[in-house]
Amino acid sequence: MSVSGWKRRLRRRIPNAIDISAAGMGAAIATAFPTPEGAAFVSATTTAAAQLAKALLTERQESRIERVLKLAESQIKQHVKRNGPAPRTTGSGDYGALLEGTLLTARDSYEEKKVLLLANLVATAPFTNTPASNLIDTLQLAERLTYRQLCILSVVPGYHPDSRPPLTDKAFPKLFSVQSDEGGQGILHDLLLLVAQQLVVAVKDNAYLYDMQTILLVPSSLRLSYPARIAVNAMRLVATIPVEDLVDVLKVLGHQDVAGDQTERDV
Is 177 exposed, middle or buried (0-12, 13-18, 19+ CB in 10 A)? Predict the structure, then answer.
């Protein structure tokens, strides 16, 4: 939008796509929570969106924000259809902060595939028992991590013991020695970055080993730490990330005998 068009819209108080999408999401929340507390959630939603609707945005930025709101509206409606209304008593204030932060993150996200994951976060938040303040930490992770790193999180088990197909039992030095492809090396380095941030942790005898040396790390022994588990669940990474986006990751990290089955993992 041109600067003159943006100023004209503000003077005339003409709603834009963000305003309209926020109204739709607010209506979905009102249906989900037909209580005074639900009304507070609606207010938090429209207030957060209104702040961005006033800003001068590029078409792509406005499109990303609109997509988050529309996708979240659709998911909230689906949840209500499956489960019925769910009265909520606390959290609307933090939810407004979470939504505003999510829309700001979506606005500036140059990886378009993260937009749906961000929509999942704000659609999940009203229905989870996880405090919104913890989910704001998840938002910071979503902003900081790349889409490929989120893909890696989605294939690492969340708990120990885990009944799903394991990742490779080759140690990192061996994996690096046989990986000549630059894309594969990038995946291994991404996993090491997740380990360095203590989002992925080695587990032995049911104990989390935060200080294990890199040379001893084996992907099959890795598990998600609490912040990573919340991120995987709140953004619905396992259910949302397409199988084709996991192919390269599993070629590097999947167990050679079961890599083909690992695209249907649950956290």
Answer: exposed
Beta carbons within 8 Å of 10's beta carbon, 6+ residues apart: 54
Going along the chain, which residue ranges are E strands? 200-204, 207-209, 222-224
Where do the structural domains in the chain lie, given as residue ranges?
3-144, 148-264
Q: Which amino acid is at 132?
A: A
Helices of type H across 160-246: 172-178, 182-196, 226-234, 237-240
Closest of 99, 148, 92, 93 to residue 121, by C-alpha: 99
Q: What is the pLDDT of residues 195-250, one digit of tens each?
A: 999 999 988 877 878 887 877 889 998 999 999 999 999 999 999 999 999 999 99
pTM: 0.81
Pair of tokens at residue 112: 């378009």
Q: Whats the size of the chain, residue-wise?
A: 267
pLDDT at 129 over 70: yes
In what side-by-side order are the strands of the sheet with 207-209?
207-209, 200-204, 222-224
